């Protein structure tokens, strides 16, 4: 129990090194390791006290004492949900893992990616956070470059340049906050728990807010930093898109850095961020509707959904922030499931284009049924997990701006339009002769789909296992914002939003 977080972080990396010695059975090895990691996350979940909003299971070891760099890891209700869903999705990914050339290397990449993800969600030292953040580039760029499509090199380079450049901007902010802490306290520290006691002037908060905002906005991705996403999703191997959970670490960064460290600036720039988020909702949906490539449709739908997530986070109340985190967790499952279906169809048709589909319901009834359930989850139908997240996010933001919330509600209508278009063109209508011989789901695919459908429906009916641990941690976050805010209007605004 004492080192449970460290075990969760480094167990997949250790397993990845052992995988290099294997000669066969790579998929089975990945399933076993990811299942054990998921069990460890369940143990963490069962041991977590949801009534406590502070960080639990803390481990701290000085790494570079003179620079204040510490191995500081733990978990609160916000990170707990994302850790649990990340380990679950990696397990499902290995269950479904298709045959690839160089499968050993693929298994190693995915296990290293799991370590990096858990590290990002569990570290509370800004330098270590940055290290894990940058390391996430390596397995993703490698998978894209080795198993990607015809334009994989261009997509990999664009992704690397965008994210690396934004990360360097964020690093400037991290170093400056550490410098400010050294002036205030007399010693260096990059501990986020120490930074909670650092009070920065509003002018300093303003430019630091934008340094961190750019670093996180590129990863989400927010407009106008989104142009790498369609290329990466379009060229990435379908299994690589289980790594789409990485889109969530940008929004997670807002909760760890921007809101608690720069509360005055966060409130000051609420409206610009909200306008960008609403634009994401509408833009992502409209562009998705006009795509012919299934992967592009899902890529642009992610932009739309992440717009709702950011709105929830910047609602500054328990409903909005809790809904935003819940929607992140839900989108991990639903987004991965949709890409899984795209991979299944590609294996049968060797194409991602809707023009090559049509009438597949006759040949693939089980696939049609499973896709229909995930379609309903994607558009936010009640009794699915996405509905809970979107409803709470928009309910929270309604207290801030009823007008923008009503505009953002178009996500339900627009989402239904592009997803129903995809479903109709792929599965309904007359069946061309070339599609009559297409085989339905095999046992491996049925198991993967069944797991995902079960979780999406269960969380839609009973969201409390995720929401309950979130409540205390979100309340703790809002209390930190009130305590650190320098402007009286900011304090009153946060109190008003929290009590709405």
Total of DSSP H or I helical runs spanning 4+ residues: 23
Through-space gap between termini: 39 Å
Average pLDDT value?
A: 87
> Total strand count, please?
2
- How would a textbook summarize the main sheet? 2 strands, antiparallel
Secondary-structure element pattern, one letter each: HHEEHHHHHHHHHHHHHHHHHHHHH
Please provide a written account of the structure.
This protein is mainly alpha-helical. Helix content is 73%, strand content 3%. The protein has helices at residues 4-19, 26-47, 77-96, 103-122, 126-135, 137-147, 152-185, 192-195, 202-219, 228-235, 247-261, 263-268, 270-289, 294-313, 318-349, 360-363, 365-378, 385-398, 402-408, 410-427, 443-461, 464-484, 488-499; strands at 56-64, 69-75. Strands 1-2 form a two-stranded antiparallel ribbon. A hairpin with a 4-residue loop joins strand 1 and strand 2. Helix 3 packs antiparallel against helix 21 (443-461) and helix 4 (103-122) runs antiparallel to helix 6.
Descriptive key words:
500 residues, mainly alpha, two-stranded antiparallel sheet, globular
Please sum up the structure shown.
By secondary structure, this protein is mostly helical. The chain has 23 helices and 2 strands.
Give the secondary structure arrangement, pairings included.
Blueprint: H1 4-19, H2 26-47, E1 56-64, E2 69-75, H3 77-96, H4 103-122, H5 126-135, H6 137-147, H7 152-185, H8 192-195, H9 202-219, H10 228-235, H11 247-261, H12 263-268, H13 270-289, H14 294-313, H15 318-349, H16 360-363, H17 365-378, H18 385-398, H19 402-408, H20 410-427, H21 443-461, H22 464-484, H23 488-499
Antiparallel strand pairs: 1-2
Helix pairs in contact: 1-2, 1-4, 2-3, 2-4, 3-4, 3-15, 3-21, 3-22, 4-5, 4-6, 5-7, 6-7, 7-9, 7-10, 9-11, 10-14, 11-14, 11-22, 13-14, 13-19, 13-20, 14-15, 14-18, 14-20, 15-17, 15-18, 15-21, 15-22, 17-20, 17-21, 18-19, 18-21, 22-23
